[in-house]
Amino acid sequence: MTPVVFVHGFLGGSQQWQRQAEDLSDFDVIALDLPGYGKNARLDALDSIAGYADWALNELTARGIKQFHLIGHSMGGMVVQEMVARAPGRIARLVLYGTGALGVLPGRFETIGTSKRRARADGPQATARRIAASWFLEREKDAAYEDCAVIAEQCSLQSILTGLDAMEGWNGAERLADIEIKTLVIWGDRDRTYPWSQTEQLWQSIPDANLAVIPESAHATHLEKPGLFNRVLIDFCAD
Known about the structure:
Strand order of the largest sheet: 2-1-3-4-5-6
Radius of gyration: 16 Å
CATH topology: Rossmann fold
CATH architecture: 3-Layer(aba) Sandwich
Distance between the termini: 12 Å
Structural class: alpha/beta
Order of helices and strands: EHEHEHEHHHHEHEHH
Strand content: 5-15%
Helix content: 40-55%
Number of strands: 6
Oligomer: single chain
Number of helices: 10
């Protein structure tokens, strides 16, 4: 069975994918921790999306993973688009989840510039908890919020600011039509980070793209509606 590789988003980490690892038990699941995040929070964050893509491909090569299904969430969705541009032959199927082709994040709950200013003023832990709350429809009341906030709190101020810079400087829109891999676009219909316009752009611009909209969920659909999310994912990867 082809391995499934998960790439987390901004302030995320591999531990966010535990429910997916459990439900995708027939697959070899590999959840990465990007430099500066999660279990790799001690490492310096990288200053470009392309840098994260190179790091991820090298990490998978070091683990002996040659071909794989690839899932990217939020900032991780930008990273996997860069991975496709660099090594399309290694990726069997592509899932772009809660993400888009523009790093400036038009329609986000706040601008990237605002996030930078508030991070400097409030500190990394308060910033991590505040942003993590925006991922859930029920904000801090969601059962999965606290675990996500704890993962996010591991990020330093350097990781937060560098990650925001990396996103702000990235644009993958011109390469969407070049993606020849069968792709699934997943979006929570109440996402506060990525509006429908970004999702529609992916769906309409990638030649072989399908769309799954998960109702009554925000940016952390895989945690808010894990059963439905996982069924859609398994169906796509096992086809």
